[in-house]
Write a structure and sequence with these properties.
The protein has 774 residues and is α+β, with helices and mostly antiparallel strands. Helix content is 28%, strand content 21%. Pfam families: Glyco_hydro_92, Glyco_hydro_92N. This is Alpha-1 2-mannosidase.
């Protein structure tokens, strides 16, 4: 048997050395000491939420970018998806979390809580009042005063470990509670080593039967007392328990202001790997861990340097950028040799290689993944390698992974995520295996309705998923499948696939036409016999659509806006229909759901008509004016959404933040462009929010977006120069930006109705290919 601790120390040395190398590689082109931009991040943005109304549905994630483990102060009941709510006034524990959203809930979670007085365990008994006035929340550091216990808790994270620092009063009754939660857990006290080890099996589905999260806690002093919790009983004589619900309470005697330090780590692989992950901290004290975490955030956030905005705009921008760098999270660990290895949530085995999880492609294909392809392509290359592993281990690509397959949302949008990464230069992974996975998923219904394509046989035969065959949200599925087929077509061309195969997916990309109802000028469900659903209410949420109505989903033709425009009768009626979305009253029909879901309420109260920015299907819509020769309307509405629907406050979002997607919309739109159609080379122009932004690309080049006369009034583009030359197109090329570029915007207070109005200025549409454009 190998000397594990010797291997652990060797691995720690490897981690220390390679962490610096990896950091340098990830920040190529950036000065060693970048700006301290993390100061602008508010992790509490979006936390003032509840099931009935989402202002983000976020929690303060104390973590590193894309870290495997996050930490949060838990105000909600253990097991509740609403783990932290700004309106709460008590904290029940500090939880290691892997929760991507309250709707998906958590897995592999456990919690710590310092208390004083009588030893106790139950979450209501140990809970303490707290105030935001005595709370500090940053991405790299959290601090709060627990009034009932007169204890201050501090947390500083690494990717798979964390340091806790508890400052106690003078007492012989200071305790730290470890809650391994219910649904099956194990705890063992090792007093001679000042340690607690164990595991939790708590999850919300998406895991194999052998799933465990193994944890290790190492204290900096001996215990003066110990107790084991086992299914509602606290036993001071035992040191070990395996039951439905286990935990531990360890005691200390402390002087006033004395600090108890705890190093914590976990692993999905094994207890030994948890010990190995603890060496991410190594000999670093609390302040060192905190400063390294701060540096890690500044390194990634500092890749985008913003100038010339208000303090609130800077806070909103960097808070959104922070949210854009959390998911998908790393689900791999580093073995004793420093090689990536992961527990597979698809087959329960421990296997080599990368794996990422906790993202729903229905949300994030739109802006989050294109953002990674622009600014953090090396990260997305690892994500793509992880998708290869997911396919090999589970037989399908995940559409919503948390951590394995979850049966939620629709579409087959892994096609977009895979195609966009490769077409924008992603390399170093088996793209042919991923293409095989895309073809498999596009032509088969999966083991879950949200894996593969529900209704694939109908879709491939009829060109749409019928309304009357008991497949819910069928029109939305059809529209998304058509777009996904376009991305497969694009990838097939790039990989030199047989022309017959290329043509098949090109033809299927036009299936959106089968659902366009000329009578209403909107998309509409269609029965198996070819007749449209009746009756039809374009304001009805759900039913044929997904978390939206026909007014929202009609625009889901990302790849062929010109084709949609032609169906509507040309540019004039197309623009009129776009305008109508904003001028309609926020009326709705919620009968499909039986109650008003939070997405409906968020649209209703936003004051922007029937425009529902709080949910994903319509988020690209404001940019479609560029296709119809009226780019100034895109500029106007993009600025309206930026100004009115985002704030750096606990109620700062207008709906679910959704794993970085809604945040990435803000980041892109503040830069002045947006990826309407991932799978193409183009970004569609809006208008910049700031006077100057500098993008430090991974390849060492810079993109400088300069708009010196930008202001609250000057929101319209009067003129644009690209590398010193007049530029009249309504789109930017990804490949051109990668070469390094300077964009000079001349901003004005009134629309310029002569720039970008010609058909040649319009972005790409499948029905209107342009020479030299992809």
């Amino acid at each position: 048997m190998v000397n594990f601790f010797a291997a652990a120390r060797l691995a720690f040395l490897w981690i220390v050395v390679t962490a610096g190398l990896l950091a340098a590689g990830a920040a190529r082109g950036q000065p060693a000491q970048g700006p301290d931009v993390v100061q602008w991040v508010n992790p509490l943005m979006g936390t003032d939420s509840k099931p009935e109304l989402s202002n983000g549905n976020t929690y303060p994630a104390i973590a590193l970018p894309w870290g495997m483990n996050f930490w949060l102060p838990q105000t909600g009941k253990m097991g509740s998806g609403w783990a932290y709510q700004y309106s709460a006034d008590k904290i029940r524990g500090f939880k290691q979390t892997h929760q991507p959203s309250p709707w998906m809930n958590d897995y592999g979670q456990f919690a710590l809580m310092p208390i004083t007085g009588q030893p106790r365990f139950e979450e209501d008994a140990r809970a303490s009042w707290f105030s935001h006035k005595a709370e500090t929340a940053t991405p790299y550091y959290y601090r709060v005063y627990l009034a009932d216990h007169d204890v201050t808790t501090e947390i500083a994270p690494t990717e798979r470990a964390a340091r806790f620092r508890f400052t106690f009063p003078k007492t012989d009754s200071a305790y730290v509670v470890l809650d391994a939660l219910d649904k099956g857990s194990y705890v063992k006290l090792l007093p001679q080593q000042n340690k607690i080890i164990g595991y939790t099996t708590r999850n919300s589905k998406g895991v194999p039967p052998n799933f465990k999260n193994y944890f290790v806690l190492e204290f900096d002093r001996p215990f003066t007392s110990t107790a084991i919790y086992q299914d509602k009983k606290l036993d001071t004589s035992g040191l070990e328990a395996q039951a439905n619900h286990t935990g531990a309470v360890v005691g200390f005697r402390t002087r006033k202001g004395e600090q108890v330090n705890v190093r914590v780590a976990s692993s999905f692989i094994s207890p030994e790997q948890a010990e190995l992950n603890l060496w991410e901290i190594g000999a670093d004290d609390f302040e060192a861990v905190k400063q390294k975490a701060r540096q890690a955030w500044n390194q990634q956030l500092g890749r985008i340097q913003v100038e010339g905005g208000s303090d609130d705009q800077l806070r909103t921008f960097y808070s959104c950028l922070y949210r854009s760098l959390l998911f998908p999270r790393k689900f791999y660990e580093l073995d004793a040799a420093g090689k990536p290895v992961h527990y597979s949530p698809y087959n329960g085995q421990v296997l080599p290689g990368y794996l990422y999880t906790d993202t729903g492609f229905w949300d994030t294909f739109r802006a989050l993944f294109p953002f990674l392809n622009l600014m953090y392509p090396s990260v997305n290359a690892q994500v793509q390698e992880g998708l290869v592993n997911a396919y090999l281990e589970g037989g399908w690509l995940p559409e919503w992974g948390s951590p394995g397959y979850r049966n939620v949302m629709i579409g087959n949008n892994s096609a977009s995520v895979v195609a966009d990464a490769y077409l924008k230069g992603g390399r170093g992974y088996d793209i042919n295996k991923l293409y095989e996975a895309l073809v498999h998923g596009a032509n088969n219904a999966g083991p879950l309705q949200a894996v593969g394509r529900a209704g694939a046989d109908y879709y491939n035969k009829l060109g749409y998923v019928p309304y009357d065959v008991k497949i819910n949200e069928n029109a939305a599925r059809t529209l998304e499948y058509a777009y996904d087929d376009f991305t497969i077509y694009q990838l097939a061309k790039a990989l030199g696939r047989p022309q017959k195969e290329v043509n098949l997916y090109a033809k299927r990309s036009q299936n959106y036409r089968n659902l366009f109802d000329k009578q209403t000028g909107l998309m509409r469900g269609k029965n198996q016999n070819g007749k449209f659903q009746a009756p039809f209410n374009p304001f009805k949420w759900g039913d044929a659509f997904t978390e939206g109505n026909s007014w929202h989903y009609t625009w889901s033709v990302f790849h062929d806006v010109q084709g949609l425009m032609d169906l509507m009768g040309g540019a004039k009626p197309f623009v009129a229909t776009l305008d109508t979305v904003f001028t309609l009253a926020p009326v709705f029909d919620e009968s499909y759901y039986g109650s008003v879901i939070h997405e409906i309420r968020e649209m209703q109260i936003a004051g922007m008509g029937n425009y529902a920015h709080g949910n994903q299907p319509i988020q690209h819509m404001v940019y479609l004016y560029n296709y119809a020769g009226q780019p100034w309307k895109a500029q106007y509405w993009a600025r309206e959404v930026l100004n009115r629907l985002y704030q750096p406050t606990p109620d700062g979002y207008c709906g679910d933040e959704d794993n970085g997607q809604t945040s990435a919309w803000y980041v892109f739109s503040a830069l002045g462009f947006y990826p309407v159609c991932p799978g193409t080379d183009q970004y569609v122009l809006g208008a910049p929010l700031f006077k100057k932004v500098t993008l430090q690309l991974e390849n060492g080049r810079q993109v400088v977006l300069s708009a010196p006369n930008n202001s609250a009034d000057n929101r319209y583009i009067r003129g644009l120069q690209f590398n010193g030359q007049a530029y009249n197109y309504n789109w930017l090329s990804h490949q051109a930006l990668l070469q390094g570029a300077t964009l000079d915007f001349d901003m004005a207070p009134t629309p310029t109705t002569t720039r970008g109005t010609t058909p040649e200025a319009a972005p790409y549409s499948f029905s209107k290919p342009k020479k030299g454009r992809k």
